[in-house]
Amino acid sequence: MMPRRAERLTGFLRSALVCGLLFASIFGGAWWASGQSRGRELRSRVVYPPQRISLRMNHRHPAHQRLRCERCHEGTTESTRSSDLLIPEERHCNPCHAEQTREASDGDCAYCHVGAEGGVIPASTFPPPRLTFDHQRHAREGVACLDCHEGVMSATVATRSHLPTMRSCFRCHDDDDASSACDGCHVTVPDGRLRTAYPEGEMLPPTWLYGMDHDRDFLVRHRWIAADHGELCAQCHQERECVACHDGRGQVRRVHRGDFLTTHAPMARRDEPRCASCHTTQRFCTECHARLGLSTVSSVEASAGTRFHPPPSIWVNSPSGHAAEARRSMTQCTSCHTERDCVACHGATGIGSGISPHPPGFAGRCSGALERNPRACITCHGDVSALRCR
After folding, report:
1. N or C end of the chain: smaller count of CB under 10 Å?
2. What is the DSSP string of 275-335?
3. Average of pLDDT values for 87-105?
4. pLDDT of 11 above 60
5. Which residues in 124-237 belong to E strands, given as ranges?
6. Cα within 13 Å of Cα(25), Cβ side
7. What b-and-e string marks burial along 107-117, b requiring 16 or more CB atoms within 10 Å of the CB?
8. Integer Cα distance of 157 and 59 in angstroms
9. Average pLDDT value for the chain
């Protein structure tokens, strides 16, 4: 029985494998191919807003294949604006489709218009692209329509998927045959930078353009791209955006907390390798500290006559001075100071100047503090066995 059962199981698995491979080759392969095709046809919704097309058309028809593009798309070779609507109208179709037009006069508009019913024709919308484009100039340079509108002659209705891609434009716009300046094609704002915010979303660079795709890793690698292609970054960004982030005024919350500027010093001391995964000590850290006058290599202009804290008469002795600030946010103090800085003044048993950090009457309740955290007492008092509260 066992060999026969094993034989049936083997046969079943073999059949399942064959069926699986057949299914994958027919449906999976078709899905993969269509997915690849769709991937090639994807266009930015920001640059080319979504259309609504209720027209019937077949560019593959032999009669249409023999026509020049300008026969139906009248005025294309004279158009100088991307906002010009170059879609064929009924008068362009009538000379060849007179018979169908007569039939449509009886109310059968659905022959040409998808969804037409009872003489009501659904509207088609063709929003203008967010580009600056001159068809006339390209026509004069001898650029053929199908060089930019690839795949039209093998399609039925031409859609957004047949509009030029940025990569296809770069076949000519490589600074040798034509300029590759961003503002030559993209819409700008009054100060000359590119407009990037639109109702459909934000216009971002493509992945293939020097790795400038603003994905999750871009925050790490943007420094190299900015160093090599800073002029491209300046097409959309202003220098103050870089300075605000790198000086800590405008922080990226998904990387550092809002108070990271005051707490980064102890974190850097504890975990320098982690900081170094994005920052370099000799460039990022040293340059910032030198610029703010916090480093021994700071220029005289950066540090002369400047103090981080108010004068000692205010900062040390005033009730609103360093004591109040330390109670309010000790993490802010520890961003620059270590424990030994406090002990130098507040230490006991001869370590410091004997200035007590404790409030009046603390000796009567200090035993509770000792039980909770004896280390805090040892820092200043040393051997706690001699303390009175014990």
Report:
1. N
2. HHTT--IIIIIHHHHHHTT-STT--HHHHTT--SS--HHHHTTSTTSHHHHHHH-HHHHHT
3. 77
4. no
5. 197-198, 201-202
6. 6
7. eebeebbeebe
8. 7
9. 78
